[in-house]
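Journal club prep, notes for RB
We'll compare a predicted complex against what the paper describes. Inputs for the pyridoxal-5'-phosphate case:
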Amino acid sequence: MTKRFVYADNAATTQVSDEVLEAMLPWLKEGYGNPSSIYEKGRQAGHAIEDARKKMAEALGAQPQEIYFTGCGSEADNWALKGVMHKLASKGKKHLITTVFEHHAILHTCASLEKEGFEITYLPVGPLGLVTPEQVAQAIRPDTGLVSIMYANNEIGTIQPIPEIGKICRERGVLFHTDAVQAVGNVPINVVEQNIDMLSMSGHKIHAPKGVGALYMKKGIVIPNLIDGGEQERGRRAGTENVASIVGLGRAIELACADIPGKIAKVTPMRDRIIDALSDIPMCRLNGDRNRRLMGNVNMSFVGAEGEAILLGLDLRGICASSGSACTTGSLDPSHVLLALGLCHEVAHGSLRLTISDWTTEEDVDHIIASVKEVITKTREMSPLWEDIQNGKKKISLGVE
Ligand code: PLP
């Protein structure tokens, strides 16, 4: 019997779709002109980039001239935070507000800004992984230059009240950036209606290639150039463009945002079927709010089963999943996101993240459920912690300590 392959790690990355690849191929072959060249071959490549920019803008409710293509989501995050803070420092605004459970592209950028003398407030996210607009309102000070709050968390999938937070920032005259790398294509986004000044996104989460992303920056915001050099990206990020990937990104966002309600209607019941079935396993918990979470995100902890062992067991059964985020795999520290919810180390260590998509089938879901149940049972059979729990030597609380 051939092993069933199930890809349930779409928050880590996604497969390039046939439609995206088809759109890209001409720009890797005959369409090799430099977009800055004035002859037709160059102009064609330039037009292809502008067409992708239009698609990006349309998907986000922005204007094309407000979209800047970048090398990845991390680059967009770095540029937004460092750019705004460096610009506003001269006006005495040296305070930034973010959350404790952002992606490292934000947290490490904040750490770097702190070394330069900027002050950062890290808002707690509560046991369900949600920030409230009131928390943001209370944290804003006269010297606050920027609020940066992720749209949806990459590990637990919780969706933040972005329009409400944006409204507060606007009322208080503070710029608002959101890392929407996990949200684009999963949540309907309109930067105007949702009061967003700056937004980061990444191609490889929406079936475009790795190594391409974008920063939306509202018209009128001026921050230092990311790369000085040529006139590419209106002089703000120099360097000959990655034409094929940008074209792929344009096609990918067009497809990803074409019918978000339809995808939600299809994927949410599959996600809930997984959560309900796995909740039968003793000593487990769902991490993050049950309802305000991305359509494809399941993040659960199974006490007495190590995350790494679960992943290896699932891999043997053909399932790609994750424990914490892909970026922190290889580290033995429990995920900062799960710790931010208030979980103890034992519970955080036994976490499993499954991120399904509209490519997932009901048969895939059956295979996931059966395999996770089997793997947790087998992993616990080898766990001294589980043995101690079973014979009453150790007590572990599943909730917040
Ligand atoms: N922000 C979030 C929330 C992410 O999930 C990721 C990637 O996992 C990034 C930023 C970084 O994106 P990229 O891999 O394109 O640099």
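Talking point for the session: The CA atoms of residues 177 and 240 lie 27 Å apart.
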